[in-house]
Design goal:
The structure holds 2 protein chains of 2 kinds. Chain A is mainly beta. Chain A contains 1 helix and 11 strands. The longest helix of chain A is centred in the last third of the chain and has 4 residues. The chains are: A mainly beta, B mainly beta. The interface between A and B is medium-sized, with 27 and 28 residues.
Chain lengths: 115, 111
Amino acid sequence: ETGVTQTPRHLVMGMTNKKSLKCEQHLGHNAMYWYKQSAKKPLELMFVYSLEERVENNSVPSRFSPECPNSSHLFLHLHTLQPEDSALYLCASSPEGQRITGELFFGEGSRLTVL
Amino acid sequence: GQSLEQPSEVTAVEGAIVQINCTYQTSGFYGLSWYQQHDGGAPTFLSYNALDGLEETGRFSSFLSRSDSYGYLLLQELQMKDSASYFCAVRGEDSSYKLIFGSGTRLLVRP
């Protein structure tokens, strides 16, 4: 139990579907992140929210849409995805001090398969 | 740009010592972090080095040489449960919120 919970753990969707990934952290952290993990590639940062404001948007296609309604919850809305978007999507959180120590607290991820 | 290089795979025997190397390229350096990830699990923070030298935490140690842009993770008294992927990471040059990760080293511990 990492204190960061992601649902669903597995998701299969067609290219025309709309779905959402949910992340909840119980650690009292101020910042939340979405990372994408594909086979044999480094983790790629997608979005960062600090105090519910987006502070990073790494040239992510608009078919991915994040939402952070409060400091404990983070969503990733998915729409009209492509098969190459199939990957493990990891949510993470950090206290303000992460910027010094590089410590993120990750969830176990949502495994997405796009057919 | 920024990049990190680490071996893709390492194999070692239970009870042995293994070293996982990481070299990095970055114009602004704020420290080197290490993470462990078991198959199907969450990446878990292991250590952080901002200054040169060795940091020890139980069976795991992490080393940094800033002049060589190099670090390593040392795992001693290997156990089967240490089989996992290990990632090094540095902070982004353009953002204090961004961690740039290496591609990971898959460690296989054999009996």
